[in-house]
């Protein structure tokens, strides 16, 4: 008996592979419909007992048996019933209770439990109302997804940026600033009642909110004080015989003030005497270091009135005018330098001295 069945099956398969092509090549619809009967018989012979999951009129998928179908349905439902630590489930229900129907199905269209769940969940991620049909295997089978409605309380925290305000200070310089009060971000907690269908939020309602951390504004103090140039006084009396700048192709690094021999030389600014000696072309030379990062040089002196290490105040007599070193007449060569003594770059003293007080 079994043998006979097998022979019939073989004959049916031969029919599928040989008769159908011949029929369709000669192709008119009438002759095809005759042979379709044979094909349907063949296809029916390949169907086996299975369970389809249906939602309304739509077949969602087909699995091997009732237990698998129930398991797929439960997994889908409880996926939405599970809550995170910041959620509370208020209500959950099927929009349409899925049905399990016994069917005969082509073995190729029967999904494993995992494939069935993946199919339904991915379809659910698209808004279920938008899913008209989802292909399972080629164009042989289509599916909608199932639909669950649920409502949760969801607790969310949100941060709030702080404001920054600026205050002025007369005691700080313009390039200085200080943070008077550090800014703190605010934190607010919100409890929302959110309604979902599958993975899509449908409606959100604020139930209550609470301020956890009050934002604190940042206060920055900015200085308004203008940095003044260091103040120097004229280091002697007389007239300007040579200014700072290029002279005979070289930089004249100071200002020359000429007067008679023995004219008094004054400290241009408070400081400490760091040199009283013959120093190359400067002749008898005094250097004074000031506490603002500058130092001054007095050259071609006739006599020193101070010693190295002496603390001098602005205007103190430090020496007498001469013409020692590389000099052609009684004058003071005066330099202002910025940098660590004895190095540093020279600056034009006329920016710092009131030369109008000298004779022309
Ligand atoms: Zn000079």
How are the SSEs ordered, and which strands pair?
Blueprint (H helix, E strand, L loop, with lengths): L1 H25 L2 H18 E9 L2 E6 L2 H16 L5 E8 L4 E8 L6 H13 L8 E2 L6 E2 L4 E13 L3 E10 L3 E5 L4 E12 L2 E14 L4 E8 L13 E4 L2 E3 L2 E3 L2 E4 L5 E3 L4 E8 L5 E6 L4 E11 L6 E2 L4 E5 L9 E8 L6 E3 L13
Helix pairs in contact: 1-2, 3-4
The protein binds zinc ion.
Which residue ranges are poorly predicted, with pLDDT under 50 across at least 5 consecutive positions? 1-32, 127-143
Number of helices: 4
Mean pLDDT: 83
CATH homologous superfamily of one domain? Answer: Glucose Permease (Domain IIA)
Q: What is the CATH C-level name of one domain?
A: Mainly Beta
Cα end-to-end separation: 140 Å
- The beta-strand count equals 24
- CATH-derived architecture of one domain: Distorted Sandwich
Question: How do the helices and strands follow one another from N- to C-terminus?
Answer: HHEEHEEHEEEEEEEEEEEEEEEEEEEE
Bound molecule types: zinc ion
Shape: rod-shaped
Category from helices, strands and their pairing: alpha+beta
Helix content: 10-25%
Plain-language structure description:
- With 360 residues, the chain is α+β, with helices and mostly antiparallel strands.
- The protein is built from 4 helices and 24 strands.
- Among the domains are: 73 residues, Resuscitation-promoting factor rpfb (Resuscitation-promoting factor rpfb fold); 119 residues, Glucose Permease (Domain IIA) (Distorted Sandwich).
- The strands form 6 sheets. Strands 13, 16, 17, 18, 19, 20, 21, 22, 23 and 24 form a 10-stranded antiparallel beta sheet that branches. A 4-stranded antiparallel beta sheet has the order 3-7-10-11, with helices on one face. Strands 2-1-4 form a 3-stranded antiparallel beta sheet.
- The longest helix is centred in the first third of the chain and has 25 residues.
- Bound molecules: zinc ion.
- Zinc ion binds next to loops.
């Amino acid at each position: 008996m079994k043998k006979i069945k097998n022979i019939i099956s073989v004959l049916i398969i031969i029919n599928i592979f040989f008769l159908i092509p011949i029929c369709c090549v000669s192709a008119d619809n009438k002759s095809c419909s005759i042979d379709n009967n044979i094909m349907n018989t063949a296809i029916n012979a390949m169907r086996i007992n299975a369970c389809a999951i249906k939602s309304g009129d739509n077949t969602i998928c087909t699995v091997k048996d009732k237990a698998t179908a129930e398991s797929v349905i439960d997994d889908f439902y409880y996926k939405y019933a599970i809550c995170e630590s910041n959620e509370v489930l208020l209500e959950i229900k099927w929009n349409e209770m899925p049905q399990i129907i016994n069917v005969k199905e082509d073995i190729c269209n029967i999904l494993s439990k995992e494939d069935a769940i993946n199919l339904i969940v991915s379809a659910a991620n698209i808004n279920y109302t938008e899913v008209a049909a989802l292909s399972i295997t080629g164009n042989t089978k289509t599916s909608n997804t199932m639909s669950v409605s649920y409502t949760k309380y969801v607790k969310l925290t949100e941060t709030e940026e702080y404001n920054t305000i600026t205050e002025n200070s007369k005691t700080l310089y313009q390039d200085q600033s200080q943070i008077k009060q550090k800014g703190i971000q605010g934190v607010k907690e919100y409890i929302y009642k959110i309604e979902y269908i599958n993975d899509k939020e449908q409606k959100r309602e604020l139930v209550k909110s609470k301020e956890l951390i009050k934002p604190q504004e940042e206060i920055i103090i900015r200085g308004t004080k203008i940095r003044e140039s260091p103040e120097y006084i004229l280091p002697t009396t007389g007239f300007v015989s040579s200014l700072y700048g290029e002279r005979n192709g070289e930089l004249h690094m100071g200002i020359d003030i000429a007067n008679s021999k023995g004219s008094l030389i004054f400290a241009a600014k408070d400081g400490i005497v760091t040199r009283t000696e013959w120093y190359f072309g400067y002749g008898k030379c005094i250097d004074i270091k000031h506490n603002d990062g500058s130092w001054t040089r007095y050259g071609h002196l006739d006599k020193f009135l101070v010693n190295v290490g002496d603390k001098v105040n602005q205007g103190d007599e430090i020496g007498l005018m001469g013409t020692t070193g590389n000099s052609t007449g009684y004058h003071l060569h005066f330099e202002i330098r910025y940098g660590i003594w004895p190095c540093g770059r020279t600056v034009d003293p006329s920016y710092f001295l009131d030369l109008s007080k000298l004779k022309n």
